[in-house]
Write a structure and sequence with these properties.
Organism: Maridesulfovibrio ferrireducens
Structural class: mainly alpha
InterPro entries: Cyt_c-552/4, Multihaem_cyt_sf
Radius of gyration: 24 Å
Number of helices: 8
Keywords: Membrane, Transmembrane, Transmembrane helix
Strand content: under 5%
Number of strands: 0
Shape: elongated
Helix content: 40-55%
Protein name: Cytochrome c554 and c-prime
């Protein structure tokens, strides 16, 4: 009888060990995409990147914010960065011109989301390929149209 009891205990122990061990599979490994900047999109999306580059020096640019920064309060700067920088206020997003210069403009990932996984793998399922009106309205809303006198949802040049 002792042999059977021993076998059952070993079986229970191994089952617990397996279940416990599986809970750590992938521990510390993240599958969350991070922001990489629009340059990373250029290799596969040449036409779109070319159009983006042509227009990004205008309304999407954060260069004017950089010039005005000394005259703006911190809260005002945050409002500017939320639309004129990539991923501001989000994990891995724009922090400052010095720390994250590749995210300093409103780039591809503002609309399409963080692109690191898509860039690494190329799988179109790993990025938001199609954007909708809700994505645009984050920045192109009634308040901003009135405050900055720009037309909402005008062709931005990327697509």
């Amino acid at each position: 009888m002792r042999g059977k009891s021993y076998t059952i205990r070993i079986g229970v122990f191994l089952t617990i060990l397996t279940v416990f061990g599986l809970s750590f599979v992938g521990y510390g490994v993240t599958n969350s995409a991070t922001y990489v900047g629009s340059e990373a999109c250029a290799e596969c999306h040449e036409k779109e990147f070319s159009n983006y580059s042509k227009y990004s020096k205008k309304a999407h640019s954060s260069a004017s914010i950089k010039i005005m920064a000394s005259d703006l309060a911190q809260d005002e700067l945050k409002d500017c960065y939320s639309c004129h920088a990539t991923g501001y206020g989000k994990p891995g997003g724009f922090v400052s011109f010095e720390k994250t210069p590749q995210l300093a403009d409103a780039g591809c990932e503002v609309c399409h989301g963080p692109g690191s996984l898509h860039v690494e793998d190329g799988d179109p399922e790993l990025i938001k390929a199609k954007v909708d009106i809700k994505d645009c309205e984050t920045c192109h809303n009634a308040d901003r149209v009135e405050n900055f006198n720009f037309k909402p949802l005008i062709y931005g040049g990327a697509h």
